[in-house]
Structures
1.
Amino acid sequence: MKPHSTARGHRRPWSVRGKLPGQPHPNTSVRTAILGGGISGLTLARKLREAGLDVAVFEAAPKIGGLCCSESVDGWTYDVAGGHILYSKEKPVLDWMVAQTEGGCFQRERHTKIRVGDRWVHYPFENGIGDLPKEQTFACLMGYLEASYARRKGGAAPTNFGDWIRYRFGEGIERIFMKPYNEKIWKTPLQEMSTEWVEGRVPDAPIEDVVRAAIGIRTEGYTHQSIFYYPKSGGFEAIVRGIGAGVRDAVRLATPAREVRRKGSQFLVNGELFDHVVSTVPLPEFAKIAPELDAATRDAIERLRYTSLTSVAVGLKHNDLPPYSWIYLPQHEQGPTNRITYLSNYSPNVAPPGHGLILAEVTSAGAPRKDAAFLKEVVDGLVHAGLFQAGDVAMTHASAVKYAYVVFDLDFRKKIDASLAGVAALGIDTLGRFGRFEYVNSDHCVSRAFALADQLIAKAKRGGAPTAGR
Ligand SMILES: Cc1cc2nc3c(=O)[nH]c(=O)nc-3n(C[C@H](O)[C@H](O)[C@H](O)COP(=O)(O)OP(=O)(O)OC[C@H]3O[C@@H](n4cnc5c(N)ncnc54)[C@H](O)[C@@H]3O)c2cc1C
């Protein structure tokens, strides 16, 4: 989607309302209700406000940010939905987000590894198989060659993720990394998942690189996100705080949208009249507050699957961390954690001086856990993985989010198309990671918010009803 054409990383004063030079006036009497004050809702509010439109943001939580929130406890700061980095392929979006960030950003180089036994394996795994014990290197290489040979003979690629892994990577990589890691993160039988999300997310190494890796010649394999940004202080939330600063007066905190219904060509949100509604709240939550949704849409939304997440911050008494950004933990004996972020390598300001902070991510299919027994299980797993000693731990703290990852099960496409069509039929626009059940990062949310704002502003200028009508 094309970013907003005026996003150039510089701020426009908030007092700018209505006419921009050479442009027609938008209809400033149009009132838009934005449901949800995460990065999607706040960015949209900013852009509409900058064009002189009237917005109100309903946010259920006592603070803005949603999945981009960070938590600060006794001098430690961590991101509540796992380790976040700021990165975008769209330079105007990246520049805008960096420019918004309260207190500015550090620029960092990505170093990622996979922990297998006591070894650090280069990421992506196919480019790191030479880092494994020789028997495992052999099994991975042999399987990769066999899979590649079988593919050349033709035949359609499997459409379920579980079978696709074997088809794409072969038995060795499947057994040692892909299957255990993906089972840990998705909490869903892999044969029940589709492959529609893998492109651009599961690296795809050429066979020459895998052979090179096996005999010890280093190949990079993955240059995506090689440089990223992270706020200097305040955690990832500093980005949304900067974005939200310009629309503070429009944001209603601790004010959930409890009911949305039509009134003629307008809408009532909690009984208040608006011309237009954009929902960024997770679709299952939206279904609860939209009594006019038809039964088929409601049913499709109810069947959408997702995982929840617990983020466990582990504060260490020292800051002697390996030089990594984040690492993957595929093995069962490493405990329930699938990924660790070395957060104090992003910013030293997230931990008290002389201390280190790492962040463990654990997904769940049901209610996420935060109890003491669970935290002990997480820490014991990390100690077992050789990441630190039990006596190094200075503090643990956990946060949970209900909606973390969209699960792309086999009938996902059918369900999501029906869900979005049903909401659109009410005349309501949707935006955001769970507002549309898309596997998107915060930069994609910003880019999509820019694009939607453009459409709504254009409509308002024509004097028509503002619904983007996607
Ligand atoms: C584990 C993990 C790692 C990630 N890593 C990265 C990363 O490294 N980089 C990156 O850029 N992105 C990353 N992301 C993605 C990023 O967090 C999301 O794409 C982004 O934060 C989604 O923003 P949103 O505004 O669409 O949704 P949300 O942040 O979910 O916002 C929705 C808002 O709606 C509110 N709400 C819910 N119900 C109601 C109601 N009834 N009324 C009013 N408000 C309501 C919620 O409180 C919330 O604030 C990651 C996500 C996860 C889970």
2.
Amino acid sequence: MTALYDEIQQVAAQYPQRRSAVIPALRLAQEAHGGWLPPAAFREVADALELTPAYCQSVASFYDMFQLEPVGKHMIEVCTNISCALVGAQATLEAFESELGIRAGETTPDGEFTLRTIECLGGCGWGTVVSCDHRYRHYVKPEDASRVVEELRHAEH
Ligand code: FES
């Protein structure tokens, strides 16, 4: 058995029903596969929890935190929901697009960055909220894009 299988068994042991561990198991699988869930990941999670790959994929496809396509080493997610939109989220998003040379939903050719829009991150009073490698930054303005990208580029991952 693989290390991932063993990790999933440990998580599953914390739940009365093994299938309840599907979300943490998918998170583990995503980490193991470099930040996204290829078809093999669904088979591995399904085998470990005695589910079907289709069920695991259906769960993953519902949640924004699971990636169904390859992603860059760093993930920049700009909240564009209403509260952030009212304080300039679109301009902030466009600044990141310009800085990275890609559009939202794309990954840079060197595989370093993926840029996405994302639904409300729960920090509506502190917009624009931008999640950088899953850490939230508040009050992000267009002029911050270049500095944020440089910080991430030099950050340990
Ligand atoms: S609308 Fe952006 S954090 Fe809520």
